[in-house]
Design brief:
By secondary structure, this protein is mainly alpha-helical. The chain has 2 domains: about 55 residues, Orthogonal Bundle (Arc Repressor Mutant, subunit A); about 130 residues, Tetracycline Repressor, domain 2. The chain is about 75% helix and about 0% strand. It contains 9 helices and no strands. α3 packs across α4. It starts with 5 loop residues before the first helix and ends in a 5-residue tail after the last helix. This is Transcriptional regulator, TetR family. Keywords: DNA-binding. GO terms for molecular function: DNA-binding transcription factor activity; transcription cis-regulatory region binding.
Length: about 200
């Protein structure tokens, strides 16, 4: 059997810590997850956590990044099934809002994420979503489908609307009931950008 390289072992350690942290943060939340919860389950030491992520917050950021990337991929897949850039943009925003029903997304990304990592608008993963929205808005505006609105402003407002709707759904008392209301409002707000 071939011996693993140092890089492969480090990558394996990172994967184990992220998987362990993802499960612990989903079950207990950031505040109630101990360093031992994160390391003991996968037979690693605190030193491995510190070496790879700096601290618990650094590991949490890596978990949020992973989940957010999965969310973006799921939303993009739904958008790609649409026939037009406009319907794809709406599908992606509504899909992001709907993911607020997923308990893992709800707890880690939408509840604990802003409390631990600050404003989601500054997360690298959110900026990649903004880039995709910006490209769609620019294409729609160039095609004359949207009013002559500033592309950056419209993109940030659309992304902010989807994010805040998801945050609202995730933290309300009855997320399943609020979801269609949030999605309808998102569609109506976005529709205001369309040329009459």
């Amino acid at each position: 059997m071939a011996r693993r390289t140092r890089a492969e072992m480090m990558d394996d350690t990172r994967r184990k810590l992220i998987a362990s942290a993802r499960a612990a943060f989903a079950e207990k939340g950031f505040a109630d997850t101990s360093m031992d919860d994160l390391t003991a389950a996968v037979g690693l030491t605190r030193g491995a956590l510190y070496h790879n992520f700096g601290d618990k917050k650094g590991l949490f950021a890596a978990v949020v990044e992973q989940i957010d990337a999965e969310m973006a991929s799921r939303a993009r897949a739904l958008a790609e099934a649409e026939d037009t850039v406009w319907s794809a943009l709406l599908a992606e925003g509504c899909a992001y809002i709907e993911m607020a029903l997923d308990p893992e997304v709800q707890r880690i990304v939408l509840r604990d994420g802003p409390a631990v990592l600050g404003d989601p608008a500054h997360w690298p993963s959110q900026n990649r979503c903004l880039d995709a929205t910006r490209a769609a808005v620019a294409e729609l505006r160039a095609a004359g489908i949207l009013k002559p609105v500033d592309v950056e402003a419209a993109s940030r407002l659309l992304n902010g609307a989807a994010l805040n709707a998801a945050l609202w759904v995730a933290t309300c008392d009855d997320p399943a009931t609020m979801l269609p209301k949030a999605q309808d409002a998102f569609r109506m707000l976005a529709g205001g950008l369309l040329v009459d």
